[in-house]
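Query structure, 469 tokens:
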């Protein structure tokens, strides 16, 4: 598609793939796209469709990736259509009249990066690196082509990228170049060229890996792993967490539009129209008494229990953040952390800030052995917290159910279930892992109103609408 005119079939395929990866495209948007492509044939189809289909900055990279992958399926040589920053047609064309060109020249088996200063006149004195053929590197012994047990596909994918960069010698070369920059031997312009080259090859390697995976599995929905809505919450980098918090704030705002209010009879407040009409019918037009009503929150109490052991802490962080955004929907909110003990954090000041991960981990280090014990936690909760809870309260548990082969003590969860209105359990593990030998979900779920998989933002949004609406 890159460099080709989009026909009807290619447009339909693009729409199908974008929907498969989790981007919503409406019929109205498709109609607008057809009109725009007809009215503006000189504009880049990629940019025209991007402006119509993509409405969040976070989706730009995913769209470009899908577009390039579709373009590669239309070409017999996937790598040939992509040009690195400053690429030239041959090694000797890196020189210009003033000898100051910094670019990338093609070399045998790959592409060579050439960094030259204005004082350098020959390629032999330039700092250069040649990237070998990517498919050759993927065929080397030791390439992580299979997913190891208990590892996610995303982690395995990153291992493949690191393997290719390591085997090509790129990591060694980039480290030596960084040392040269620290010694003042590499100029700022040269370093910027290197960074552009590094970014280019990171994208190229991922694209080739995705091409291989798409060809082997023949399904586009696997690209949902790249969509930030479907990425596991524990896979976001520190830089990406700001994007997640922004999405959670928007979730909270949408949930807070309807505050979950219910009407209740009162001695003063708003006049009850239904009672007024009944009085007029009974009194033949005369009204002898007035009834009033007032609004109250229909959700009396929310109690949140978050496992903060290493495997679950990133998921708990985002749940706590969302609960802080929607606490106005409840008359009372209580927040607790646990590993092998339970700690009340309802009044902690750090909860109102986005950077809570360090605090969450510090509580686990200070107050526990580090090994989860759900049985002990439910026992402590039933004995010390449960007596003060409302019978109409909702308990929300974030945990993976892995108990390190300790006693389940499910009778205490049953005691909690008999006292409160609802228990909702959010589990960050895939459902197939709920039946592992050290996992107690099969015993605990019988005392829960509902158990939800909760691995990503899409799951959390669907859960929020069911639990908090």
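Result returned for the query:
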């Amino acid at each position: 598609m890159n460099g080709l005119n989009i026909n009807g079939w290619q447009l339909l395929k693009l729409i199908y793939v974008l929907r498969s990866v989790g981007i919503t495209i409406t019929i109205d948007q498709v109609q607008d796209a057809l009109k725009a492509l007809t009215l503006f044939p000189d504009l880049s189809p990629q940019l025209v469709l991007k402006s119509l289909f993509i409405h969040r900055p976070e989706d730009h990279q995913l769209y470009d990736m899908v577009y390039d992958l579709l373009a590669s399926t239309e070409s017999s040589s996937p790598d040939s259509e992509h040009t690195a920053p400053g690429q030239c047609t041959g090694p000797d064309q890196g020189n210009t009249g003033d000898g100051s060109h910094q670019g990338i020249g093609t070399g045998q088996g790959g592409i060579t990066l050439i960094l030259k200063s204005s004082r350098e006149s020959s390629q032999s004195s330039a700092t250069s690196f040649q990237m070998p053929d990517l498919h050759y590197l993927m065929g080397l012994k030791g390439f992580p082509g299979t997913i190891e047990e208990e590892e996610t596909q995303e982690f395995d994918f990153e291992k493949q990228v690191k393997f290719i960069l390591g085997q090509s010698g790129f990591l060694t070369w980039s480290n030596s170049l960084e040392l040269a920059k620290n010694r003042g031997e590499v100029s700022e312009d040269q370093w910027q060229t290197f960074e552009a080259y590094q970014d280019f090859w990171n994208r190229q390697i991922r694209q080739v890996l995705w091409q291989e995976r798409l060809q082997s599995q023949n399904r586009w929905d696997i690209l949902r792993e790249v969509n930030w809505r479907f990425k596991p919450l524990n896979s976001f980098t520190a830089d990406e967490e700001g994007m997640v918090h922004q999405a959670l704030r928007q979730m909270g705002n949408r949930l807070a539009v309807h505050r979950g209010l219910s009407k209740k009879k009162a001695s003063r407040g708003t006049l009850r129209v239904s009672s007024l009409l009944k009085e007029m019918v009974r009194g033949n037009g005369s009204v002898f008494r007035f009834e009033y009503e007032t609004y109250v929150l229909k959700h009396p109490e929310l109690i949140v229990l978050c496992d903060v052991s290493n495997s679950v802490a990133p998921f708990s962080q985002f749940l706590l953040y969302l609960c802080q955004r929607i606490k106005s929907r409840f008359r009372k909110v209580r927040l607790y952390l646990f590993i092998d003990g339970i700690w009340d954090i309802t009044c902690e000041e750090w909860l109102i800030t986005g950077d809570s991960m360090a605090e969450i981990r510090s509580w686990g280090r200070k107050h526990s052995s580090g090994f989860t014990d759900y049985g002990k936690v439910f026992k402590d909760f039933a004995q010390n917290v449960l007596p003060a809870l409302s019978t109409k309260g909702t308990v929300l548990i974030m945990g993976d159910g892995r108990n390190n082969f300790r006693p389940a003590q499910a009778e205490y969860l049953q005691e909690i279930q008999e006292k409160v209105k609802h228990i909702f359990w959010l589990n960050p593990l895939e459902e197939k892992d709920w039946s592992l030998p050290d996992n107690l979900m099969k015993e605990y779920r019988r005392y829960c109103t509902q158990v939800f998989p909760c691995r990503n933002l899409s799951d959390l949004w669907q859960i929020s609408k069911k639990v908090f609406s």
